[in-house]
Amino acid sequence: MQTARYLRDKLTDAGLTCRVNDLSSTVVLERPLDDEIIKRWQLACEKDIAHVVVMPNVTPQKIDQFVQELIDCKNKFGRISPVSKNSPLSQLTSTAWGGDAVAPYGSDGKGN
Description:
This protein is an alpha+beta fold. It has one domain (2-90): Aspartate Aminotransferase, domain 1. It is built from 4 helices and 4 strands; from the N terminus they run αββαββαα. It has helices at 2-13, 35-40, 60-77, 88-91, and strands at 18-20, 26-30, 44-46, 49-53. A 4-stranded antiparallel β-sheet has the order 1-2-4-3, covered by helices on one side. A hairpin with a 5-residue loop joins strand 1 (18-20) and strand 2. The longest helix has 18 residues, at 60-77. The chain is globular and about 35 Å long.
């Protein structure tokens, strides 16, 4: 769970929307716009989100590599917008998760 929180912190620092439940090793994040990254990292996707299950063999170095590829993807292709008002990505900003969240792309009406 500590490694999952590390991933959450790295994604948040990169300006990507993500959440992790305090009692889980699953990190939910905004879906990348590049299918190659989805395939390479075997991300489980649904609508506008993806999730990663952080297993015990995942190292901080592997997370750093993953996050850098997501940053490169964001810089090249942009960020996904919520597909609807109640889409999974929109729900990641719910206070039910606790803590702060990076707003999904386009949620402020300005594309930010």
